[in-house]
Amino acid sequence: MSAYVKHISYYLPEKVLTNEELVQEFPEWSVDKVAAKVGVNSRHVASDDETATDMAEKAARKLFEESGVSPKEIDFILFCTQSPDYHLPSSACILQDRLCLPTSCGAFDYNLGCSGCIYGMAVAKGLISGGIAHNVLVLTGETYSKYLHPSDKSNRSIFGDGAAACLISTEGFAEIGEFSLGTDGSGANHLIVKTGGARQMEATGLSVPDDEGHTWHDDYLYMNGSAIFNFTLDAVPAMMKDILLKNSIEKDAVDYYLFHQANKFMLNTIRKVCVLPKDKYYVNLETTGNTVSSTVMIGLRDCMDAGTIHEGMKVMVAGFGVGLSWGGCMLKF
């Protein structure tokens, strides 16, 4: 049985952090320098009492309102987050109750970042193909801002908070094709929050400089930018070739490429290395920043609203990052 994207909605927090505000904290920077390097002019930041679960709920409610689909029609919910409300229970179980989904609905969280929405689509397709579910609600939500050290100007300029909701069903506007998925856990330390889990539950307060002169704080998010960049340039071209092969499609037949919105520099480098035309390639982080697992869904919805992506198009979508993990597939509109 085929699986389709039926509707996409998203939610962004009300609070906005602008480059001008960041520069006030870091006067050695200029507004133009921040925007030129990462492609972000402003980003949404969750309030102190707002969690990824709260945002995912709002995205899901927006989806039900916009699509006319009833919560009672959902028979499985998947929630991608690295910012759960609790170690247990699963936030997806909490969302099942908040959204008034049937108690016969399956529900679980999965801990992935930048490739998360692609993995969610793959699992949802498997559930539908196996006859286990008919309407799968894939939610993504992240509050990386809560993991960032106040002095971490680099990551604070890149990441924004947000959530997305995608309904995968037996019918819809975009048929989901074949997937290319991959993992290289040897690079796990390149993007990590070391404390808070079972390995190291208590905060350590420790920090050390890395080879790039950035500070690694155990209790906050650490990203080795150059290592992530190199990993991406290795993984994405090979993933693209695999997606084309598995979907029996030539590169020139792809109408549009919408990849995880990591940062402007990385996206432009990927485009050049993969020799992709500018007019078929999505780059738009100006007002959202890198929302981790939600960037692809936000981009798809915005492109459909703008008419950039429309019926009859073949669109390659992909995510890559923390894990290290990557994944992509073709969508046939």
Which structural class do you get from the secondary structure elements? alpha+beta
Using only CA atoms, what is the Rg?
Answer: 19 Å
Number of DSSP helices?
9
Total beta strands: 15
Strand content: 15-25%
Low-confidence stretches: none
| Major sheet strand order | 5-4-6-7-1-8-15-14-13
Q: Give the helix level as a range of percent.
A: 25-40%
Overall form: globular
Main beta sheet strand tally, sense and closure: 9 strands, mixed
In whole angstroms, the N-to-C terminal distance is 17 Å
Topology pattern, helix = H, strand = E: EEHHEHEHEHEHEEEEEEHEHHEE
Describe the structure.
The chain is of the alpha+beta class. 31% of the residues lie in helices and 24% in strands. It contains 9 helices and 15 strands. It has helices spanning 19-25, 31-38, 52-67, 91-98, 116-129, 153-158, 225-246, 264-274, 295-306; strands at residues 4-11, 16-18, 42-44, 76-80, 106-110, 135-142, 162-169, 174-183, 191-192, 207-209, 215-217, 222-223, 256-259, 314-321, 325-332. The strands form 4 sheets. Strands 5-4-6-7-1-8-15-14-13 form a 9-stranded mixed beta sheet, sandwiched between helices. The protein has a two-stranded antiparallel ribbon with strand order 2-3. A hairpin with a 3-residue loop joins strand 14 and strand 15 (325-332). The model has no long low-confidence stretch (mean pLDDT 95).
